Amino acid sequence: MEIKQMVESIVRELLISLEPQSVKRPKVLYIFYDSTAHEAYTDHFIWLTNHHVNYDRLCLDGEASSWLGKHQIECGGYGKTIASDEFAPSPLEVPLDYEGIVIPEIDLDNAARAALGMKGTIISEIIFSTLVQNKFVLIGDDISGLKRADRRTLRTLTLPKAYVNLFDYYKMELQMYGVEFGPLKQLAEMAVNKIQPGPEVPNTAINIETEERIETNNSMVYEGRLISADWVEREFKSKPFGSLRVGKRTIISSLAQDMLKDKGITIDYAAGR
Question: For the whole model, what pTM was predicted?
Fold first, then answer.
């Protein structure tokens, strides 16, 4: 059975190599913390394939001890899982072969290292290398900050309030460096749009590029990067509003979310922002 799979893999790679260079497909890399996490993202891979974008999967089993020098990275071929291996190339070299990187979930430790420009883990190395090459890094926004292994070990799904605020801060810092956050279900679509951008559609309804905030009737439009509790308290005291419209990349701190909920203010995420 193993020989059959090996032959199939070789034939597949030969067929891909015979494709004309002019129609060579772009490729993205998905990074997961363990070898089973990718199973929940089958729809992503179908979307990419249907839009003529190839992908590889990097699974970091035992990532908690994957310090540089102990675990590095090796690709198993097109559409295959990439494994941690001490005989493989350096993580810094990995983004060279990809248009961009997609990380469905990132934990507090790796977010902190990447935000502070620190190396030491495979993910922080790859994020650094990708951004230096001016390639895109997409990360899921609706995440807890705890990797799956930590959730299983600690028997909890969320970080304490103080760590949630710290995680929000690191996410804001990463956005300043060029990392983009988006809903988990839309990451594949975002990757395709990055590689194959469609025509821009002008927004004639509301211009939110020139100002950080715009008031429309009982609604507030905010185009900054971070909404804090202090901002909510200050703006609501100045002129109460019933709804808040923000861009998809805007980060709302946990305390601000609680304050908006207590005041009965609804949050509307603007499409395409």
Answer: 0.62
